[in-house]
Amino acid sequence: MESVRSRALVPCLAFVCLVTAVIGSLGAPLIPAIAAMDHVSVTDAQWSLTITQLVAAVATPVMGRLGDGPHRRTVVVGTLALVVIGCVLAALPLGFVTLLVGRALQGIGLGLTPLTIAVARDELPSARAVPVIALLSITAVTGVGLGYPLTGLVAQWGGVRGAYWLGALVSVLGLAAAAWTVPAAKHRARVPLDVLGAVLLALGTASLLVAISEGESWGWGSLRVDGMILASVLLFTVWVVWELRTPHPLVSLRLMRESSVMTASAAAVLAGVGMYLLLSTVTRLVQTPAGTGYGLGRTVVVAGLALTPFSLGSFLANRLTPALVRRTSPRVVLPMSCLVLLAAMAIFTVWRGNMTQIMAVMFVAGLGVGIIFAVVPGFLVRAVPPRETGSAMSFNQVLRYIGYAVGSALSAAVLEGHTHTGAAYPASSGYTAVGLLSCGVWLATAVVAVAVPLLRRGRRTPLTALSQERVRSMAKGTGPSPGPGPVLGERDETATAE
Q1: pLDDT tops 60 at residue 469
Q2: CATH superfamily of 1-190
Q3: Burial of 240 per CB tally in 10 Å (0-12, 13-18, 19+)
Protein backbone atom coordinates (compact mmCIF):
# COMPACT_ATOMS: atom_id res chain seq x y z
CA MET A 1 0.00 0.00 0.00
CA GLU A 2 1.24 3.47 -0.89
CA SER A 3 2.32 5.47 2.16
CA VAL A 4 0.97 8.90 3.08
CA ARG A 5 4.34 10.42 2.27
CA SER A 6 4.35 8.88 -1.20
CA ARG A 7 0.83 10.12 -1.90
CA ALA A 8 1.86 13.60 -0.81
CA LEU A 9 4.89 13.72 -3.12
CA VAL A 10 3.17 15.21 -6.17
CA PRO A 11 1.16 17.89 -4.27
CA CYS A 12 4.28 18.89 -2.37
CA LEU A 13 6.39 19.12 -5.54
CA ALA A 14 3.68 21.27 -7.12
CA PHE A 15 3.60 23.46 -4.02
CA VAL A 16 7.38 23.95 -4.15
CA CYS A 17 7.10 25.06 -7.81
CA LEU A 18 4.29 27.43 -6.87
CA VAL A 19 6.29 28.89 -3.96
CA THR A 20 9.35 29.59 -6.09
CA ALA A 21 7.23 31.20 -8.82
CA VAL A 22 5.51 33.47 -6.30
CA ILE A 23 8.85 34.38 -4.72
CA GLY A 24 10.21 35.25 -8.15
CA SER A 25 7.26 37.61 -8.72
CA LEU A 26 8.14 39.68 -5.62
CA GLY A 27 10.17 42.02 -7.82
CA ALA A 28 8.43 43.74 -10.72
CA PRO A 29 5.29 45.10 -8.99
CA LEU A 30 7.34 46.42 -6.05
CA ILE A 31 10.04 48.35 -7.95
CA PRO A 32 8.48 51.85 -7.51
CA ALA A 33 7.76 51.16 -3.84
CA ILE A 34 11.32 49.92 -3.25
CA ALA A 35 12.71 53.08 -4.87
CA ALA A 36 10.62 55.26 -2.54
CA MET A 37 11.29 53.16 0.56
CA ASP A 38 15.08 52.99 0.19
CA HIS A 39 15.49 56.43 -1.44
CA VAL A 40 17.07 55.13 -4.64
CA SER A 41 16.25 55.78 -8.29
CA VAL A 42 13.80 53.57 -10.15
CA THR A 43 16.72 52.41 -12.32
CA ASP A 44 18.63 51.24 -9.25
CA ALA A 45 15.49 49.67 -7.79
CA GLN A 46 15.17 47.67 -11.02
CA TRP A 47 18.10 45.59 -9.78
CA SER A 48 15.77 44.01 -7.24
CA LEU A 49 14.34 42.15 -10.24
CA THR A 50 17.46 41.90 -12.40
CA ILE A 51 19.65 40.33 -9.72
CA THR A 52 17.05 37.60 -9.14
CA GLN A 53 16.98 36.68 -12.82
CA LEU A 54 20.76 36.83 -13.01
CA VAL A 55 21.32 34.50 -10.06
CA ALA A 56 18.58 32.16 -11.31
CA ALA A 57 20.19 31.86 -14.74
CA VAL A 58 23.56 31.04 -13.18
CA ALA A 59 22.39 28.78 -10.34
CA THR A 60 19.87 26.70 -12.28
CA PRO A 61 22.26 24.53 -14.36
CA VAL A 62 24.57 24.05 -11.38
CA MET A 63 21.65 22.86 -9.26
CA GLY A 64 20.48 20.64 -12.11
CA ARG A 65 23.86 18.92 -12.33
CA LEU A 66 24.10 18.50 -8.56
CA GLY A 67 20.53 17.22 -8.55
CA ASP A 68 21.44 14.48 -11.03
CA GLY A 69 23.68 12.93 -8.35
CA PRO A 70 23.08 11.40 -4.91
CA HIS A 71 22.65 14.79 -3.18
CA ARG A 72 19.37 15.78 -4.82
CA ARG A 73 17.37 15.92 -1.59
CA THR A 74 20.07 18.00 0.09
CA VAL A 75 20.13 20.43 -2.83
CA VAL A 76 16.33 20.87 -2.78
CA VAL A 77 16.06 21.36 0.99
CA GLY A 78 19.20 23.52 1.19
CA THR A 79 18.00 25.77 -1.63
CA LEU A 80 14.65 26.36 0.07
CA ALA A 81 16.51 27.23 3.28
CA LEU A 82 18.48 29.87 1.35
CA VAL A 83 15.23 31.24 -0.07
CA VAL A 84 13.84 31.61 3.46
CA ILE A 85 16.97 33.49 4.52
CA GLY A 86 16.72 35.68 1.42
CA CYS A 87 13.11 36.60 2.17
CA VAL A 88 13.98 37.50 5.77
CA LEU A 89 16.91 39.68 4.65
CA ALA A 90 14.69 41.48 2.15
CA ALA A 91 11.99 42.00 4.79
CA LEU A 92 14.29 43.47 7.45
CA PRO A 93 14.85 47.27 7.40
CA LEU A 94 18.60 46.97 6.78
CA GLY A 95 18.91 49.05 3.62
CA PHE A 96 18.91 48.57 -0.14
CA VAL A 97 22.11 46.53 -0.35
CA THR A 98 20.77 43.96 2.11
CA LEU A 99 17.54 43.78 0.12
CA LEU A 100 19.57 43.01 -3.02
CA VAL A 101 21.44 40.24 -1.20
CA GLY A 102 18.11 38.79 -0.11
CA ARG A 103 16.74 38.96 -3.65
CA ALA A 104 19.86 37.21 -4.94
CA LEU A 105 19.31 34.33 -2.50
CA GLN A 106 15.67 34.14 -3.61
CA GLY A 107 16.89 33.81 -7.22
CA ILE A 108 18.56 30.50 -6.35
CA GLY A 109 15.10 29.09 -5.64
CA LEU A 110 13.99 29.64 -9.23
CA GLY A 111 16.21 26.72 -10.20
CA LEU A 112 14.10 24.22 -8.24
CA THR A 113 11.53 23.47 -10.95
CA PRO A 114 13.92 21.25 -12.99
CA LEU A 115 14.82 19.35 -9.82
CA THR A 116 11.17 18.69 -8.96
CA ILE A 117 10.74 17.37 -12.50
CA ALA A 118 13.74 15.07 -12.05
CA VAL A 119 12.29 13.79 -8.76
CA ALA A 120 8.96 13.08 -10.45
CA ARG A 121 10.62 11.20 -13.28
CA ASP A 122 12.64 9.00 -10.90
CA GLU A 123 10.00 8.32 -8.26
CA LEU A 124 6.80 7.90 -10.29
CA PRO A 125 5.77 5.18 -12.74
CA SER A 126 6.42 6.40 -16.28
CA ALA A 127 2.70 6.38 -17.16
CA ARG A 128 2.05 8.83 -14.32
CA ALA A 129 5.28 10.82 -14.62
CA VAL A 130 4.45 12.44 -17.99
CA PRO A 131 1.28 14.30 -16.86
CA VAL A 132 2.88 15.19 -13.51
CA ILE A 133 5.89 16.72 -15.25
CA ALA A 134 3.53 18.81 -17.38
CA LEU A 135 1.71 19.89 -14.21
CA LEU A 136 4.95 21.01 -12.56
CA SER A 137 5.97 23.03 -15.59
CA ILE A 138 2.53 24.66 -15.76
CA THR A 139 2.57 25.43 -12.02
CA ALA A 140 5.75 27.47 -12.48
CA VAL A 141 3.93 29.61 -15.06
CA THR A 142 0.67 29.82 -13.12
CA GLY A 143 2.51 31.03 -10.03
CA VAL A 144 3.69 34.13 -11.89
CA GLY A 145 0.12 35.19 -12.61
CA LEU A 146 -0.92 34.47 -9.01
CA GLY A 147 2.12 36.14 -7.48
CA TYR A 148 1.62 39.53 -9.12
CA PRO A 149 -1.84 40.29 -7.68
CA LEU A 150 -0.89 38.73 -4.34
CA THR A 151 2.19 40.93 -4.20
CA GLY A 152 0.12 44.03 -4.96
CA LEU A 153 -2.47 43.27 -2.30
CA VAL A 154 0.02 42.51 0.47
CA ALA A 155 2.20 45.50 -0.42
CA GLN A 156 -0.83 47.78 -0.27
CA TRP A 157 -1.77 46.54 3.22
CA GLY A 158 1.61 45.80 4.74
CA GLY A 159 4.14 47.61 2.57
CA VAL A 160 7.17 46.14 0.80
CA ARG A 161 8.40 44.51 3.99
CA GLY A 162 5.06 42.78 4.45
CA ALA A 163 5.30 41.24 0.96
CA TYR A 164 8.70 39.73 1.77
CA TRP A 165 7.54 38.49 5.19
CA LEU A 166 4.75 36.67 3.34
CA GLY A 167 7.41 35.23 1.04
CA ALA A 168 9.33 34.00 4.08
CA LEU A 169 6.22 32.31 5.44
CA VAL A 170 5.35 30.41 2.26
CA SER A 171 9.02 29.50 1.81
CA VAL A 172 9.08 27.90 5.26
CA LEU A 173 6.01 25.88 4.31
CA GLY A 174 7.70 24.81 1.08
CA LEU A 175 10.84 23.85 3.01
CA ALA A 176 8.82 21.69 5.40
CA ALA A 177 6.97 20.01 2.54
CA ALA A 178 10.19 19.21 0.66
CA ALA A 179 11.99 17.95 3.77
CA TRP A 180 9.10 15.56 4.44
CA THR A 181 8.42 14.19 0.96
CA VAL A 182 11.49 14.46 -1.30
CA PRO A 183 13.28 11.09 -1.11
CA ALA A 184 17.00 10.58 -0.98
CA ALA A 185 18.74 9.55 -4.21
CA LYS A 186 21.73 7.71 -2.78
CA HIS A 187 21.50 5.09 -5.51
CA ARG A 188 22.51 7.65 -8.13
CA ALA A 189 26.16 7.95 -9.09
CA ARG A 190 28.11 11.00 -7.97
CA VAL A 191 28.41 13.49 -10.84
CA PRO A 192 31.53 15.71 -10.93
CA LEU A 193 30.67 19.40 -11.09
CA ASP A 194 32.05 21.25 -14.10
CA VAL A 195 33.35 24.29 -12.21
CA LEU A 196 34.95 26.00 -15.22
CA GLY A 197 31.79 25.48 -17.26
CA ALA A 198 29.75 27.02 -14.44
CA VAL A 199 32.06 30.05 -14.24
CA LEU A 200 31.99 30.62 -18.01
CA LEU A 201 28.21 30.30 -18.12
CA ALA A 202 27.87 32.64 -15.12
CA LEU A 203 30.08 35.32 -16.66
CA GLY A 204 28.47 35.05 -20.09
CA THR A 205 24.93 35.16 -18.70
CA ALA A 206 25.76 38.00 -16.30
CA SER A 207 27.29 40.07 -19.08
CA LEU A 208 24.27 39.54 -21.32
CA LEU A 209 21.64 40.26 -18.66
CA VAL A 210 23.44 43.34 -17.34
CA ALA A 211 23.69 44.72 -20.89
CA ILE A 212 20.00 44.05 -21.49
CA SER A 213 18.91 45.45 -18.14
CA GLU A 214 21.06 48.59 -18.35
CA GLY A 215 20.71 49.18 -22.09
CA GLU A 216 17.98 51.79 -21.62
CA SER A 217 19.95 53.85 -19.07
CA TRP A 218 23.41 53.41 -20.63
CA GLY A 219 22.13 53.86 -24.16
CA TRP A 220 21.62 51.15 -26.77
CA GLY A 221 24.65 51.20 -29.03
CA SER A 222 26.91 52.68 -26.34
CA LEU A 223 30.43 51.33 -25.89
CA ARG A 224 29.58 49.74 -22.53
CA VAL A 225 26.49 47.91 -23.81
CA ASP A 226 28.14 46.76 -27.05
CA GLY A 227 31.26 45.70 -25.15
CA MET A 228 29.27 43.59 -22.68
CA ILE A 229 27.26 41.95 -25.45
CA LEU A 230 30.48 41.15 -27.35
CA ALA A 231 32.05 39.77 -24.17
CA SER A 232 28.95 37.64 -23.63
CA VAL A 233 29.18 36.20 -27.14
CA LEU A 234 32.85 35.36 -26.67
CA LEU A 235 32.27 33.78 -23.27
CA PHE A 236 29.39 31.68 -24.56
CA THR A 237 31.53 30.55 -27.51
CA VAL A 238 34.32 29.42 -25.20
CA TRP A 239 31.73 27.77 -22.95
CA VAL A 240 30.24 25.77 -25.84
CA VAL A 241 33.70 24.56 -26.94
CA TRP A 242 34.54 23.56 -23.37
CA GLU A 243 31.22 21.78 -22.78
CA LEU A 244 31.70 19.71 -25.94
CA ARG A 245 35.21 18.63 -24.88
CA THR A 246 35.05 18.09 -21.13
CA PRO A 247 34.17 14.53 -20.01
CA HIS A 248 31.64 15.76 -17.40
CA PRO A 249 29.95 18.85 -18.87
CA LEU A 250 27.63 21.09 -16.91
CA VAL A 251 25.15 20.75 -19.78
CA SER A 252 25.30 17.91 -22.31
CA LEU A 253 25.20 20.06 -25.44
CA ARG A 254 25.51 16.97 -27.62
CA LEU A 255 21.87 16.33 -26.77
CA MET A 256 21.11 19.30 -29.03
CA ARG A 257 21.59 16.90 -31.94
CA GLU A 258 18.17 15.53 -31.08
CA SER A 259 15.46 17.50 -32.83
CA SER A 260 13.27 17.33 -29.72
CA VAL A 261 15.92 18.99 -27.55
CA MET A 262 16.67 21.60 -30.20
CA THR A 263 12.97 22.37 -30.61
CA ALA A 264 12.45 22.63 -26.84
CA SER A 265 15.47 24.93 -26.46
CA ALA A 266 14.41 27.30 -29.23
CA ALA A 267 10.84 27.34 -27.93
CA ALA A 268 12.05 28.15 -24.40
CA VAL A 269 13.97 31.25 -25.50
CA LEU A 270 11.33 32.60 -27.87
CA ALA A 271 8.43 31.81 -25.55
CA GLY A 272 10.24 33.60 -22.72
CA VAL A 273 10.68 36.68 -24.90
CA GLY A 274 7.06 36.67 -26.01
CA MET A 275 5.70 36.03 -22.53
CA TYR A 276 7.52 38.95 -20.91
CA LEU A 277 6.85 41.30 -23.82
CA LEU A 278 3.22 40.92 -22.82
CA LEU A 279 3.51 40.79 -19.01
CA SER A 280 5.82 43.79 -18.78
CA THR A 281 3.67 45.83 -21.14
CA VAL A 282 0.27 45.03 -19.63
CA THR A 283 1.24 45.95 -16.05
CA ARG A 284 2.53 49.29 -17.33
CA LEU A 285 -0.48 50.00 -19.56
CA VAL A 286 -2.99 49.33 -16.79
CA GLN A 287 -1.23 51.81 -14.46
CA THR A 288 -0.86 54.55 -17.10
CA PRO A 289 -3.11 57.54 -16.25
CA ALA A 290 -6.36 57.84 -18.18
CA GLY A 291 -5.38 61.43 -19.05
CA THR A 292 -2.99 60.08 -21.69
CA GLY A 293 -6.01 59.13 -23.78
CA TYR A 294 -5.29 55.40 -23.75
CA GLY A 295 -4.20 54.44 -20.20
CA LEU A 296 -6.54 52.71 -17.78
CA GLY A 297 -5.40 54.64 -14.69
CA ARG A 298 -5.61 51.70 -12.26
CA THR A 299 -3.58 50.86 -9.13
CA VAL A 300 -0.79 48.29 -8.80
CA VAL A 301 -3.29 45.93 -7.19
CA VAL A 302 -5.56 46.07 -10.24
CA ALA A 303 -2.53 45.70 -12.51
CA GLY A 304 -1.70 42.49 -10.68
CA LEU A 305 -5.28 41.27 -10.87
CA ALA A 306 -5.17 41.80 -14.63
CA LEU A 307 -2.79 38.84 -14.75
CA THR A 308 -5.14 36.49 -12.92
CA PRO A 309 -6.81 35.35 -16.18
CA PHE A 310 -3.31 34.47 -17.39
CA SER A 311 -2.98 31.99 -14.52
CA LEU A 312 -6.48 30.63 -15.13
CA GLY A 313 -5.69 30.11 -18.80
CA SER A 314 -2.42 28.32 -18.07
CA PHE A 315 -4.15 26.10 -15.49
CA LEU A 316 -6.85 25.18 -18.01
CA ALA A 317 -4.14 24.41 -20.54
CA ASN A 318 -2.89 21.63 -18.27
CA ARG A 319 -6.32 19.98 -18.61
CA LEU A 320 -6.57 20.47 -22.36
CA THR A 321 -3.05 19.53 -23.43
CA PRO A 322 -3.30 15.72 -22.91
CA ALA A 323 -6.46 15.60 -25.03
CA LEU A 324 -4.82 17.70 -27.75
CA VAL A 325 -1.75 15.44 -27.77
CA ARG A 326 -3.91 12.31 -27.98
CA ARG A 327 -5.85 13.66 -30.94
CA THR A 328 -2.82 15.03 -32.77
CA SER A 329 0.79 14.91 -31.51
CA PRO A 330 3.24 17.12 -29.57
CA ARG A 331 4.70 18.20 -32.92
CA VAL A 332 1.33 19.64 -33.90
CA VAL A 333 0.30 21.02 -30.51
CA LEU A 334 3.42 23.19 -30.09
CA PRO A 335 2.97 25.35 -33.24
CA MET A 336 -0.79 25.34 -32.60
CA SER A 337 -0.23 26.99 -29.20
CA CYS A 338 2.04 29.58 -30.84
CA LEU A 339 -0.78 30.50 -33.20
CA VAL A 340 -3.10 30.92 -30.19
CA LEU A 341 -0.61 33.41 -28.75
CA LEU A 342 -0.24 35.10 -32.13
CA ALA A 343 -4.01 35.65 -32.10
CA ALA A 344 -3.88 37.01 -28.52
CA MET A 345 -1.22 39.56 -29.39
CA ALA A 346 -2.98 40.54 -32.60
CA ILE A 347 -6.07 41.29 -30.49
CA PHE A 348 -3.96 43.27 -27.99
CA THR A 349 -2.50 45.32 -30.82
CA VAL A 350 -5.92 46.74 -31.76
CA TRP A 351 -8.16 45.97 -28.75
CA ARG A 352 -6.92 47.17 -25.33
CA GLY A 353 -9.25 50.02 -24.33
CA ASN A 354 -10.66 48.64 -21.06
CA MET A 355 -10.03 46.01 -18.37
CA THR A 356 -12.45 43.51 -19.92
CA GLN A 357 -10.48 43.51 -23.14
CA ILE A 358 -7.15 43.27 -21.31
CA MET A 359 -8.34 40.34 -19.21
CA ALA A 360 -9.68 38.54 -22.27
CA VAL A 361 -6.30 38.91 -23.98
CA MET A 362 -4.52 37.66 -20.86
CA PHE A 363 -6.73 34.58 -20.65
CA VAL A 364 -6.05 33.60 -24.26
CA ALA A 365 -2.34 34.28 -23.80
CA GLY A 366 -2.26 32.18 -20.61
CA LEU A 367 -3.91 29.34 -22.48
CA GLY A 368 -1.27 29.44 -25.21
CA VAL A 369 1.72 29.79 -22.86
CA GLY A 370 0.34 27.03 -20.64
CA ILE A 371 0.12 24.61 -23.55
CA ILE A 372 3.68 25.42 -24.64
CA PHE A 373 5.17 24.84 -21.20
CA ALA A 374 3.10 21.67 -20.76
CA VAL A 375 4.40 20.20 -24.02
CA VAL A 376 8.07 21.27 -23.91
CA PRO A 377 9.10 19.10 -20.89
CA GLY A 378 7.75 16.06 -22.70
CA PHE A 379 10.12 16.73 -25.61
CA LEU A 380 13.06 16.68 -23.22
CA VAL A 381 11.94 13.74 -21.06
CA ARG A 382 11.50 11.50 -24.09
CA ALA A 383 14.77 12.62 -25.69
CA VAL A 384 17.31 12.48 -22.86
CA PRO A 385 18.44 9.59 -20.66
CA PRO A 386 17.19 9.69 -17.05
CA ARG A 387 20.63 10.59 -15.70
CA GLU A 388 20.53 13.81 -17.73
CA THR A 389 16.99 14.93 -16.86
CA GLY A 390 17.95 17.49 -14.21
CA SER A 391 20.70 18.97 -16.36
CA ALA A 392 18.54 19.18 -19.50
CA MET A 393 15.59 20.71 -17.65
CA SER A 394 17.86 23.19 -15.92
CA PHE A 395 19.42 24.37 -19.16
CA ASN A 396 15.96 24.76 -20.66
CA GLN A 397 15.01 26.85 -17.63
CA VAL A 398 18.10 29.04 -18.12
CA LEU A 399 16.99 29.70 -21.69
CA ARG A 400 13.58 30.73 -20.34
CA TYR A 401 15.17 33.21 -17.93
CA ILE A 402 17.27 34.72 -20.70
CA GLY A 403 14.12 35.01 -22.80
CA TYR A 404 12.31 36.69 -19.89
CA ALA A 405 15.06 39.28 -19.55
CA VAL A 406 15.18 39.97 -23.29
CA GLY A 407 11.40 40.34 -23.47
CA SER A 408 11.30 42.74 -20.53
CA ALA A 409 14.14 44.85 -21.95
CA LEU A 410 12.62 44.91 -25.43
CA SER A 411 9.27 46.13 -24.16
CA ALA A 412 10.98 48.95 -22.23
CA ALA A 413 13.13 49.89 -25.23
CA VAL A 414 10.20 50.01 -27.66
CA LEU A 415 8.05 52.08 -25.31
CA GLU A 416 10.96 54.43 -24.64
CA GLY A 417 11.40 54.88 -28.38
CA HIS A 418 7.76 56.02 -28.63
CA THR A 419 8.03 58.50 -25.75
CA HIS A 420 8.23 62.10 -26.93
CA THR A 421 10.89 64.38 -25.46
CA GLY A 422 9.75 65.68 -22.10
CA ALA A 423 6.74 63.34 -21.95
CA ALA A 424 6.24 61.11 -18.91
CA TYR A 425 4.46 58.35 -20.81
CA PRO A 426 4.85 56.77 -24.26
CA ALA A 427 2.39 57.32 -27.07
CA SER A 428 -0.26 54.68 -27.72
CA SER A 429 1.69 53.71 -30.85
CA GLY A 430 4.37 52.28 -28.56
CA TYR A 431 1.98 49.61 -27.30
CA THR A 432 0.94 48.88 -30.87
CA ALA A 433 4.59 48.40 -31.77
CA VAL A 434 5.12 46.02 -28.83
CA GLY A 435 2.06 44.04 -29.96
CA LEU A 436 3.37 43.75 -33.52
CA LEU A 437 6.82 42.75 -32.27
CA SER A 438 5.28 40.07 -30.09
CA CYS A 439 3.26 38.79 -33.04
CA GLY A 440 6.54 38.38 -34.90
CA VAL A 441 8.07 36.47 -31.98
CA TRP A 442 5.18 33.98 -31.81
CA LEU A 443 5.18 33.53 -35.57
CA ALA A 444 8.92 32.79 -35.41
CA THR A 445 8.32 30.28 -32.60
CA ALA A 446 5.70 28.48 -34.68
CA VAL A 447 8.05 28.35 -37.67
CA VAL A 448 10.86 26.92 -35.52
CA ALA A 449 8.52 24.30 -34.02
CA VAL A 450 7.63 23.11 -37.51
CA ALA A 451 10.95 23.61 -39.32
CA VAL A 452 13.41 21.96 -36.92
CA PRO A 453 11.80 18.48 -37.00
CA LEU A 454 11.29 18.70 -40.78
CA LEU A 455 14.91 19.68 -41.42
CA ARG A 456 16.19 16.77 -39.31
CA ARG A 457 13.61 14.18 -40.28
CA GLY A 458 15.79 12.89 -43.07
CA ARG A 459 18.19 11.49 -40.49
CA ARG A 460 15.47 9.41 -38.82
CA THR A 461 14.16 5.96 -39.49
CA PRO A 462 10.37 5.80 -39.99
CA LEU A 463 8.68 4.52 -36.89
CA THR A 464 6.38 1.62 -36.57
CA ALA A 465 2.75 2.03 -35.62
CA LEU A 466 3.63 0.48 -32.27
CA SER A 467 6.15 3.26 -31.53
CA GLN A 468 3.62 5.92 -32.46
CA GLU A 469 1.00 4.32 -30.26
CA ARG A 470 3.53 4.23 -27.43
CA VAL A 471 3.91 8.02 -27.50
CA ARG A 472 0.15 8.53 -27.51
CA SER A 473 -0.29 6.12 -24.60
CA MET A 474 2.34 8.02 -22.60
CA ALA A 475 0.55 11.32 -23.21
CA LYS A 476 -2.71 9.67 -22.24
CA GLY A 477 -1.20 8.44 -18.98
CA THR A 478 -1.42 4.74 -19.85
CA GLY A 479 0.72 2.24 -21.61
CA PRO A 480 4.16 0.73 -21.12
CA SER A 481 7.18 2.38 -19.59
CA PRO A 482 9.37 4.25 -22.05
CA GLY A 483 12.41 2.55 -20.61
CA PRO A 484 15.62 4.19 -19.51
CA GLY A 485 15.83 6.46 -22.54
CA PRO A 486 18.47 6.75 -25.24
CA VAL A 487 22.09 7.34 -24.51
CA LEU A 488 24.09 10.04 -26.23
CA GLY A 489 24.42 9.40 -29.92
CA GLU A 490 21.47 7.00 -30.18
CA ARG A 491 18.32 7.81 -32.08
CA ASP A 492 15.39 8.84 -29.89
CA GLU A 493 12.51 7.28 -31.76
CA THR A 494 9.93 8.05 -29.11
CA ALA A 495 10.63 11.77 -29.16
CA THR A 496 10.30 11.95 -32.94
CA ALA A 497 7.26 9.78 -33.42
CA GLU A 498 5.41 12.34 -35.39
Answers
A1: no
A2: MFS general substrate transporter like domains (1.20.1250.20)
A3: middle
